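If I may wish for something, please sit down with the protein I am sending here and say whether tokens and residues agree:
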Amino acid sequence: VQLQASGGGWVQAGGSLRLSCAASGYSFEFSSYAVNWWRQAPGKERELVAGLLVGDSTIYGDSVKGRFTISRDNAKSTVDLQMDRLKPEDTAVYYCNMVNFWGQGTKVTVSS
């Protein structure tokens, strides 16, 4: 299974970015598995940002609730993370994961 994360970049505080995680190389039903977005800032532990669970229920980290939205497109095997009202503290490398597979990460930098 390969997970390809994309969409990171530089944005000013208050702006938006949309990350995408594309899955390939699997033989199971994509919709049957939860997909999560994590992030890791320099010097900090990796933290869960958002998760899209089986049945499409969602979970969000407290720091991003109301600002980030996770969604999936099963036809395209992608899970997106819409990030609005970004803050400098959102600066991190963002990773997607499914089961025990991880993408390579995409860097998000939010300037004040």
The chain has no helices and eleven strands.
